[in-house]
């Protein structure tokens, strides 16, 4: 009999970690070399971090590629004291892996993700789909829904977008994002930048900055997914604004600016 995992199956350790077994087949590569090939991964949430990481049974890790860290850091990964450097074909990467001090996770090794921290394994797969930045949280949901709501976006009193055909993206823990067709956005008021970000739920985003002189509008205030992941394909090519720093009016109601990690 299979036991369905729910939020109630997430377990806590005295060190403040949350963890949960996963039934996904997970692989992690450094270049062409498979360093992790696991059918028994564990999702781990560290205190203060909104996204999970994977830890793997030692026997499902190429431990022959790990070396005791030459310069182990302190005060990271919930007090871990055992770090490893990763050595692949003579290319040594410092502190790419570690073990947690929690007894529940004894015998497990976790890895950095290079797209998230600049070091660690650079290609990750759940089953046969490549994933990016960090593992997808099974307790997080992302829904992109076409709508006929009237959405107006303003910056310093200037209307920069006006549409009645948005796509509303609902993502657990974040404010609703309003994706707007390009034809309904004054894109001439913005300049493309070379900034990009990756999201394991949506894909890789490109950005634009406001050309105006309003001091409190940060760069890269507008983004778009040119080639989104299949689950949110409906937002392809549409443009979204950070609710935190622009004014959005939906069906005549001006929304309050939310306070999120993106507010700064």
What does this structure look like?
This protein has 264 residues and is an all-beta fold. The protein has two domains: 7-131, Metal Binding Protein, Guanine Nucleotide Exchange Factor, Chain A (Beta Complex); 142-254, Metal Binding Protein, Guanine Nucleotide Exchange Factor, Chain A, CATH 2.170.150. 2% of the residues lie in helices and 42% in strands. It has one helix and 23 strands. The chain has one helix at 114-117; strands spanning 11-12, 18-21, 26-30, 33-38, 42-45, 53-57, 66-68, 82-88, 91-99, 108-111, 123-126, 129-131, 142-146, 151-155, 158-163, 167-171, 177-179, 190-199, 203-210, 222-225, 239-241, 247-250, 253-254. The strands form five sheets. An eight-stranded antiparallel β-sheet has the order 1-2-5-6-10-9-8-7, with no helix packed on it. β16 and β17 form a beta hairpin. It is elongated. Mean pLDDT is 93; it is low at 1-5.
Question: What's this model, at a glance?
Answer:
The chain has 264 residues and is an all-beta fold.
Nearest-angstrom radius of gyration? 21 Å
Q: Quote the distance from N terminus to C terminus.
A: 48 Å
How are the strands of the largest sheet arranged? 1-2-5-6-10-9-8-7
Please tally the helical runs, counting DSSP H or I stretches of 4 or more residues: 1
Give the class from helix and strand content and strand pairing: mainly beta
Q: Can you tell me the overall shape? A: elongated
Percentage of residues in DSSP E strands: 35-45%
Unreliable spans are: 1-5
């Amino acid at each position: 009999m299979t036991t369905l995992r729910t939020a109630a199956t997430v377990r806590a350790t005295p060190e403040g970690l949350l963890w949960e077994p996963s039934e996904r087949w997970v692989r992690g590569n450094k270049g062409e070399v498979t360093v992790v090939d696991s059918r028994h991964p564990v999702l781990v949430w560290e205190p203060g971090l909104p996204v999970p990481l994977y830890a793997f049974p030692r026997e499902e890790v190429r431990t022959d590629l790990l070396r005791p860290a030459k310069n182990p850091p302190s005060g990271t990964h919930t007090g871990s004291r055992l770090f490893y450097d990763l050595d692949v074909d003579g290319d040594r990467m410092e502190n790419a892996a570690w073990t947690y001090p929690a007894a529940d996770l004894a015998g497990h090794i976790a890895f950095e993700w290079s797209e998230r921290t600049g070091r660690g394994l650079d290609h990750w797969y759940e089953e046969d789909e490549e994933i990016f930045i960090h593992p997808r949280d099974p307790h997080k949901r992302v829904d992109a829904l076409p709508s006929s709501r009237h959405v107006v976006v303003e910056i310093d009193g200037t209307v920069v977008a006006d549409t009645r055909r948005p796509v509303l993206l609902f993502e657990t823990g974040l404010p609703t994002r309003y994706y707007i067709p390009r034809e309904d956005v004054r894109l001439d008021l913005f300049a493309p930048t070379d900034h990009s970000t990756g999201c394991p739920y949506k894909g890789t985003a490109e950005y634009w900055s406001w050309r105006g002189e309003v001091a409190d509008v940060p760069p890269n205030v507008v983004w778009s997914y040119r080639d989104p992941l299949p689950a949110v394909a409906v937002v392809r090519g549409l443009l979204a604004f950070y609710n935190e720093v622009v004014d959005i009016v939906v069906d005549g109601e001006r929304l309050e600016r939310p306070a999120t990690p993106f507010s700064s």
